[in-house]
Amino acid sequence: MIVIYTDGSSKGNPGPGGYGTVMKYNEHRKELSQGYRKTTNNRMELMAVIAGLESIKVEKAKVKVYSDSKYVIDSVDKGWLWNWMKKDFKGKKNKDLWLRFAEIYKKHHVSFQWVKGHAGNEENEICDQLAVGAAESNDHLIDEGFESGLYS
User: Fold this and answer.
1) Is residue 152 part of a domain?
2) pTM of the model
3) Residue 136 pLDDT more than 90?
4) What integer is the mean pLDDT of 101-119?
5) Would you tell me which of 17, 36, 74, 135 could form a disulfide with 44, CB atoms 3.0–4.6 Å apart?
């Protein structure tokens, strides 16, 4: 099983943001992070999951995602996402990222586990540091989906 820990950060909401992802498989470990010049916390929480899933090189992998984002976990586990998709995300935000997530989610066997943020979970704390560091860096990408105004 591949284990993924994720976190997102935004300095202001909206504001500069970033995500952090830690992936573990047997003895292998990989850290991912990226900053964006203007985005939201929820978008970065979702991007952290997307980045992890998209970096998996095989299909049909068993994946456990640990996140402190109720927004991400509940949207999937409670079925909200699939209803939003049926209604073309009418009145919902982040359509671009949710569609990207749904595409990669279908390629794997993904389960979610909520972890309390800032509660001493070592990998979650590392993800937080990666996300905050990315948000505060000078190496920002443009979050086209947010800045275009189409999906925010």
Assistant:
1) no
2) 0.96
3) yes
4) 94
5) 17
